[in-house]
Amino acid sequence: MPYAPTDFFSQDEVTSLEGQLQNTVDTVLLQDLLADSVQKVRDYTLKYNIEPARQKRLVRALVKFEAYKEVGPVPSQIQTAWDDAMRELREIRDNKFPDLLIQAPADPALAAPAGSFGGRRRIRFGGLPIGGDGSFAQTSATPLPDMARQGTLPITGYPTDAFTVRGLGLNFQPVNVVANVMQPAGALQIFCTIVAGSLSNDGFTVTFSGIIDRAGYQISYSIS
pLDDT, tens digit, for every residue of 96-134? Predict the structure, then answer.
């Protein structure tokens, strides 16, 4: 069932936040923040059967953080809830909850990397749109040429410990990908790991050795 902002905020909060978000640089919409948060929870829990109440609790922590991060400041209890939710999501992703059942039959979305497609904010890189959540979106259904085997993208959607490159539309099934994180001068050195099973002709997903929480980081990749 789709969520609405009033599932997580009071009506007074919705009215206040939407008014403040309209005055931000990117004119962010609360519904977009909610959609991004739902997708992020889905990305981390994709292969598991997650109870609706647990999913909603995780989404609540994420969307409240994202909303107050935009308008500032983030209340301490919302920051703590986000920290706890992200820790739980990472543990779910890393199979730290043996009681969780893997979906059967498998979710069809597992055949391709997960992640929001497009995002609410859009910048351009080499003529292709990059979603504000860090996903890489192709502009047409036409497969990209062989040069799409290599690329460098800005890592956005921070703070984050994962990144999805998708929409490559390769005309071959890749078997190997090498990816490296390039950090801005003076920033924390971060490494990345390819998520097992995520590589397809559409793209791939990586996780980071730490939290990327600022602009300037890039991911360089080569697919063959």
Answer: 777 776 655 444 444 444 343 334 443 333 333 334 444
Is 155:214 a contact under the CB 8 Å cutoff? no
Q: Tell me the pTM.
A: 0.49
Structure tokens at 46: 């994709």
Beta bridge partners of 102: 48
What is the Cα–Cα distance from 204 to 185, expressed in whole angstroms?
Answer: 26
Distance, in Å, from the CA atom of 219 to the CA atom of 62, rounded to the nearest integer, reads: 24
Whether 156 and 130 have beta carbons less than 8 Å apart is answered as yes
Q: Which of 98, 101, 61 is nearest to 83 (CA)?
A: 61
Give the Å distances, CA to CA, from 45 to 26, 54, 148, 183.
Answer: 29, 11, 29, 28
CB-based contacts of 141, cutoff 8 Å, min separation 6: 169
151-162 pLDDT per residue, tens:
888 887 778 888
Amino acid 144 reads L
**25: amino acid identity, one letter:** V
